[in-house]
Amino acid sequence: MLCLTSHLCPPLSPSCTITSKGGQTMIDFEKAYGDFIDRKEYDEAQNALFEIVRISFKAGWEAAGGNPPPSQPIVRLIPNPE
Fold first, then answer.
1. What is the pLDDT along the chain (82 residues), one digit of tens a residue?
2. Structural domain boundaries of the chain?
3. CA-to-CA distance for 18 and 4, rounded, in angstroms?
């Protein structure tokens, strides 16, 4: 993190608690951002973005003459040996 004093300081260093116009600090931002990405809705959105990128890449790959990737099972059931 780059401080206003033009030196690098470790994350969450007291010298890096830069106050914005609203009176909140970078530490407040990092906590709020961490809380945001820990939510189920973030995971769902991230998974959707991953699928969009993968589908787009696959379409381009196949349009360029590449072979489609083989289907892979998401879950494989393993029988109980008993």
1. 444 443 444 454 444 455 566 666 778 889 999 999 999 999 999 999 999 999 999 999 999 999 988 887 777 677 887 7
2. 39-64
3. 8
Assess contact for 36 and 42: CB atoms under 8 A. yes
pTM of the predicted protein model: 0.50
Dihedral of the CA atoms 23, 26, 31, 36 (nearest 10)? 90
